[in-house]
Design a protein that fits this description.
This protein is of the alpha/beta class. It has two domains: 3-127 and 319-332, NAD(P)-binding Rossmann-like Domain (Rossmann fold), CATH 3.40.50; 131-314, Dihydrodipicolinate Reductase, domain 2. It is built from nine helices and 14 strands. It has helices at residues 13-24, 74-86, 109-112, 131-145, 162-177, 209-222, 256-264, 282-285, 316-332; strands at 3-8, 29-36, 44-47, 50-53, 55-56, 67-70, 90-93, 123-125, 147-155, 228-232, 242-250, 269-271, 291-298, 305-312. The strands form three sheets. The protein has a six-stranded parallel sheet, sandwiched between helices. A six-stranded mixed sheet has the order 10-9-11-14-13-12. Strands 3-4 form a two-stranded antiparallel ribbon. Helix 3 (109-112) links the parallel strand 7 (90-93) and strand 8. The chain is globular. Bound molecules: NADP nicotinamide-adenine-dinucleotide phosphate. NADP nicotinamide-adenine-dinucleotide phosphate binds at residues 9-15, 36-37, 39-40, 57, 71-74, 76, 94-96, 129, 159-160, 162-164, 314-315, 318-319. NADP nicotinamide-adenine-dinucleotide phosphate is lined by residues 9-15, 36-37, 39-40, 57, 71-74, 76, 94-96, 129, 159-160, 162-164, 314-315, 318-319.
Length: 337
């Protein structure tokens, strides 16, 4: 069944990829339109070999839309996603505005697609770009040996800050390579030749807002409100794809072989074999839709724990691809259309 689709925030880093992913996956769009801010209204944009004109976001733009894929800043999403939903669309929202709302499912299709049975507000939230690959990689292990505790340290790329993050990083690199003064414009400090652990707002609890998202969203997606999650989020000088070093403790001992067997058949996962010289890297994950898992090994200090290394494209599986997969699931299940 083909449906009427609106892509909101179409000119941003995530929105641009949503447009590409919809086309790549041959999404059944009866009609499609592209919305952004007043700044972008009137700009030409290409989809499936045809030219479209970007429209400014306004309530009337959602009339007749069945699926809205929204990737705007949170404040815009808070204002416009309910307007689109009120007019009958199901909104798949990439911002953090709706993720912890108990009436909005937070969905990673490989992990908890059945949550789509409970859409109360017409909004499905797309999770944070660290939480998505974390849950894709850990769900198959959680299913066989119930997770007790997760310690995750991230290595997050510049594009996690959107199009402006990438421009900033590239300008910083240019200045740094020439030995000139580096002036950050989107990141909260120098990223060229450096790593930053305070590239997000610091909350009064001493964690960043990104770290709090990882805790809360991982618990919601894995369906365990008391799961112990201990994150440290770090921005690294990489353009695209976030990496995660994960230490995971289970309720019972689990062998590397058992974990690898579960990961090898898990949906959305590509398991890499370090003994064949393979290991997940951002340069390979960038532009890909899978979650790459490798370096699976015993934690010698804790009998029930394993270490693993996970990499995924933050703009694709961490945002655009996951949102399009949710939209596909909405059509497949007859929730829209
Ligand atoms: N980057 C990631 O890795 C990632 C991953 C997961 C989720 N997200 C979330 O996805 C959302 C978009 O992120 P992004 O990285 O794509 O950001 P971005 O590159 O800055 O793009 C933002 C988009 O929102 C539009 N926008 C901004 N202000 C607007 C307004 N007042 N009215 C209407 N549209 C407006 C922009 O349109 P103009 O071009 O016209 O300004 C642009 O299309 C954010 O909520 C972000 O937290 C990002």
């Amino acid at each position: 069944m083909a449906v009427n689709v609106a892509v909101v925030g179409a000119t941003g880093a995530v929105g641009d990829l949503i447009r590409k992913v919809l086309h790549e996956r041959n999404f059944p769009a009866k009609t499609i339109k592209f919305l952004a801010s007043e700044r972008s209204a009137g700009k030409p944009i290409e989809y499936g070999g045809k030219q479209y004109i970007v429209e400014a976001i306004r309530p009337e733009a959602f009339v007749g839309m069945q699926i809205v894929l929204s990737s705007t800043p949170s404040n815009i999403s808070k204002e416009f996603s309910p307007i689109a939903a009120k007019q009958g669309a199901i909104v798949v929202d990439n911002s953090s505005a709706w993720r912890m709302d108990p009436d909005c499912p937070l969905v990673v299709p490989e992990v908890n697609a059945d949550e789509l049975k409970n859409i109360k507000k017409g909004i499905v939230a797309n999770p944070n770009c660290v939480a998505i690959p974390l849950c894709v990689a850990l769900k198959p292990l959680h299913d066989i040996a119930k997770i007790k505790r997760i310690i995750v340290s991230t290595y997050q790329s510049s594009s996690g800050k959107g199009a402006t993050g990438l421009v900033d990083f590239e300008q910083q690199l240019g200045s740094w390579m020439k030995g000139e003064k580096v002036t950050p414009t989107a990141h909260r400090g120098q990223l060229a030749g450096n790593v930053i652990t305070l590239d997000w707002t610091l909350d009064p609890n001493g964690y960043t807002e990104e770290e709090n998202k990882v805790v809360n969203e991982t618990r919601k997606i894995l369906g365990d409100a008391t799961l112990a999650v201990s994150p440290t989020c770090v921005r690294v000088p990489v353009r695209i794809a976030h990496s995660e070093s994960i230490n995971v403790e289970f309720e019972r001992p689990i062998s590397v072989e058992e974990a690898k067997a579960a990961l090898a058949k898990a949906p959305g996962v590509i398991l890499m074999d370090e003994f064949k010289g393979e290991f997940p890297q951002p340069i390979h994950a960038a532009g890909q839709d899978h979650t790459f898992v490798g370096r699976v090994r015993k934690d010698h200090g804790c009998p029930n724990a394993l270490n693993l290394w996970v990499v995924a494209d933050n703009l694709r599986k961490g945002a655009a691809t996951n949102a399009v997969q949710v939209a596909e699931e909405l059509v497949r299940r007859g929730i829209v259309g």
